[in-house]
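Hi,

Apologies if this is the wrong queue. I'm a grad student, and the batch job for Tyrosine recombinase XerC from Candidatus Magnetominusculus xianensis produced an output file that my downstream script rejects. I'm not sure whether the problem is my script or the file. Here is the sequence I used:
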Amino acid sequence: MHAKSAALTDPTLLVYLLNESGEDRMKGTIRVKDKCPNCGESFEHVKKLGYVCRNCKTTPKKFYLDLNWQGKRIRLFCDKSGLALDSYQRALNLQATIQHEIDTFTFDSSKYVKAELSKYWASTLLDQFLEAKLKIVAPSYKNDYKRFIRIHKAFFSTTDVREIRKIDIINYMQSLEGNNLSGKTVKNIIDNFKTFLTWLRTDLEVLSSIPSFPAIEVQPYAFTWLGSEDQIKVLSLINDGDRDIIAFLMLHGCRPSEARALKVKDIDINRQVIIISSTFSGDVLRNRRKGRGAKPSIIPIHPEMKDFFIERCNNHPEAFVFLNPKTGNHYASRTFSRIWERARAKGNLSEKLRLYDATRHSVGSQLANQNVSPFIISKILGHSSIKMTERYMHENIDGLKSGFDKITLKDKVKEITTVTKVSPNGNH
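Support response: The file is valid. Your script probably expects a header line. Output copied below for reference.
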C-alpha cells in the first residue's frame, strides 16, 4: 500500500497527524464540499496527505482549491486542462503550480476558473471558427472545413488555446502522419489549424502571438497529361451532345468549374476573346474566379471553336454557353464527373487520369513542350503566379533535348585527348 494511503488508514498515526498537521506557506487551501457518505460527518484535513473521515476512514473524491488573491476569493475546481480535481494529489499539483505562477507574476485566474476556462477551450473556439468560415468559404470547401474541424477537436479537445506551443503542433502533425494520411492531406489539415490560430489572433484577439509551425515537405503532385492525338481519341469516346464542352476544355485549358459557369455575355465575338470571371463551387455559381483575390482572366477564342461561339452568342446574354442536352440547363457537378468517368472507362484509361489532367494540365504541358513562354502559358491558364506555371516546365523533355543540340565536344576531342595523354611533369 502507498505510504500516504497507509497513513490515512492507520488509526494511531491518523490521530497524530490530525493533531500535529500545521499551516504551510502555500497559497490557497485544499478543501472538500462533500461529507462522509457513511456517517455524514465532515472530512478532516491531513496536510500533504489528504482528507479522511476519522470514524469511517473514507476519503473524498472531489476537491477544490480555495484561494484569496488580490482581494478576491477564487475557488478552483479544475486544472488548466479542465480536468476536475478528483484526487488530493492533483489538487496538490495545482496548488504548487499556482504558487509558482504567483511567485513569477504569471498567474491568471481565468485559466483555471472552469466557467472562464471553457471559453478558451479549443473545441469551443473551433466551433465558432467553423460557423464564421462557413459563411464565406466556397461551397466546395465546406465539407473539407467540417472534416478538418472534427480532426482538430478530436486532438485538442479542452486544451486552452492560449497554452498551445510548437511542441503541441509537432505532436499533432505526428499523430496525423500516424494515421496513414498523405503528406498533402497532413499539410492541408495543419494549414487549416494555422488559419484557426491566426483567426484567434486577428479576429478575436485571444492570442497575442502564434507558435511557429514546422515545415511540411510535400511531394509535388505528379500529374499525367495527354498529347493532342490521345486527346482526340478520348474526345471520340464522349457522347455527341457533351463533346463541345470537353473540346473547349482541351483547347482552352480552363478549369471545368469555369467552363460550366461560362455565359453568353462572357464571349466577345468582335474581339475574339473569352472573359473568365465566374466559377461553380460545387453547384453554387460564384461571380468570381477560384482563388483568393483572383481577377477575371481574358483568353483568346481558339480558331477551331470560333463558329461554335458565333452560333451560341445568338442567345440571351445570361444564358449558359454549355448546356446539358438532357436537361437544357447548365452542367451539374456530378453529371460532369459521370461524363468523364464513362469516357475513361470506355477507353480503358488509368483511374488516375482525371478530367483535369486530360484538359487543363494537358494544355499547359503541350504548350511547354512547344517552347511557349511560361509567361504566355500563365496568362492562358489564368495563373496568379508564374510559380504555378513552372509545374509544367519539367515536362518539356523535347525542349531540353534541343538545348543539348547546342553544345558539342566534337571539335575538342583531339585537343582533350592530347592534353590527357601528357601529365604536367611530362610523364604519360
